[in-house]
Design a protein that fits this description.
The protein is α/β, with parallel strands linked by helices and about 260 residues long. The chain has a single domain (about 10-265), classed as TIM Barrel (Alpha-Beta Barrel), CATH 3.20.20. Helix content is about 35%, strand content about 15%. It has nine helices and nine strands. It has a nine-stranded mixed sheet. Helix 3 runs parallel beside helix 5 (about 135-150). The two termini are about 20 Å apart.
Length: about 260
């Protein structure tokens, strides 16, 4: 699949839930957000059917996101079903790591290849402040479990929030000692269109963007920083994908109709 700017679309990000067990300051308010009704969230069957069709159209790489994907009941079974689809070359997940020690081995057995873990600091007090309720030790256990399970490479995503230099250096040292690739992401704003290239990754580089997104409510989004969305329940899978890719913008602008917790970053 090529869009109208001749970018080959090979990457599908699937937000499996808008729920999360943290309340990170840059992602959602402390009281949380209005959640989707249960019947508004795609069933696993719908997600799998969409993924099967997307792969026939050239998708090779799939990433599961949230919210926090590990709070979605039955997530291991979903991983198993998606990993069994012929044509997938890479199946990964972005997680905050809080529950990863409980799921790592089962996820690997189900067919997950690797994980990205969101961790903006290794300072216990500051981690709790940023996440409003998280315990950094849970993430450390998750990283260790992921390594033992063979979910490799384990990449660490750090959002730059004005952390002190020594705090950033402590995170770098932590990752270097464990052989964990570290990526820095500048804080983004959907509504004003503030974003930049990810240091150590391809995100934010519009000229090379090769992705589309499936949201928990069935919307297919061609761009994170765009209000465009095409719902698979309303339009059908084939039409929704074709419209998303056919109307994928040359570059991101802004998105006033979504939040990071719903879109999955």
């Amino acid at each position: 699949m090529f869009d109208r700017f001749n970018r080959k679309i090979t990457y599908l990000r699937i937000s499996v839930t808008d729920r999360c067990n943290l309340r990170c300051t840059y992602c959602m308010p402390e009281e949380g957000i209005p959640l989707l009704a249960h019947d508004s969230i795609l069933k696993f069957e719908e997600i799998v059917d969409f993924t099967k069709y997307a792969i026939t159209q050239g998708i090779k790489k799939v990433r599961l996101t949230g919210g926090e994907p590990l709070v979605r009941k039955g997530i291991v079974e979903l991983v198993k079903e998606i990993s069994s689809i012929e044509g997938i070359e890479d199946l990964s997940m972005t997680t905050n790591g809080i529950l990863l020690d409980k799921f790592a081995h089962a996820l690997k057995k189900a067919g997950l290849n690797r994980v990205n873990i969101s961790m903006d600091t290794v300072n216990t007090e500051n981690y709790c402040k940023i996440t409003r309720k998280g315990e950094i030790e849970d993430v450390f256990r998750g990283i260790e479990a992921a390594g033992e399970a063979g979910l490799s490479p384990i990449k660490i995503n750090c959002v730059l929030l004005g952390q002190e230099d020594d705090e950033i250096q402590a995170l770098k040292t932590f990752c270097e000692k464990r052989g964990l690739p570290l990526r820095f992401i500048h804080q983004m704003n959907l509504k004003t269109g503030e974003f930049s290239k990810v240091k150590g990754g391809d995100g934010g580089n519009c000229s090379k963007c090769n992705r589309i997104r499936l949201l928990p409510n069935g919307d297919v989004k061609p761009c994170l920083f765009s209000g465009l969305a095409y719902n698979i329940r309303e339009l059908g899978v084939e039409k929704a994908i074709n419209l998303a890719i056919g109307n994928k913008p040359k570059a991101g602008t802004y998105n006033k109709s979504g939040t990071f917790s719903q879109i999955g970053g």
